[in-house]
């Protein structure tokens, strides 16, 4: 029985279906490995800069006054724009 096939050098040197499938699996595994494990729910730059406590602290820091007694007294008294959630308050030292 003789093999009847045409000479096709491009087809001869190209990837086979099996090698293409294996390369696709490797690419997919690499993509999955690069995905982050968890989604991050964070604040953007505008939200952080809009906090008056941060702006005041930055002004004190630029003036070189962030380690003074005045800063230590005033910074805790500045309230946030929104009150913190009740579940974020620590009760470990309350008896």
Automatic annotation (TrEMBL):
Protein name as it appears in the record: Uncharacterized protein
UniProt source species: Marmota monax (Woodchuck)
Keyword set, alphabetical order: Coiled coil
Top-level taxon: Eukaryota
């Amino acid at each position: 029985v003789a093999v009847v096939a045409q000479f096709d050098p491009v087809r001869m040197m190209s990837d086979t279906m099996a090698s293409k499938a294996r390369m696709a699996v490797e690419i997919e595994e690499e993509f999955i490995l690069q995905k982050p494990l968890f989604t991050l729910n964070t604040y953007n730059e505008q939200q952080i800069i809009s906090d008056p406590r941060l702006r005041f602290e930055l002004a004190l820091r630029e003036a070189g006054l962030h380690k003074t007694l005045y800063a230590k007294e005033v910074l805790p008294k500045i309230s946030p724009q929104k009150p913190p959630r009740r579940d974020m308050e620590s009760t470990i030292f309350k008896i």
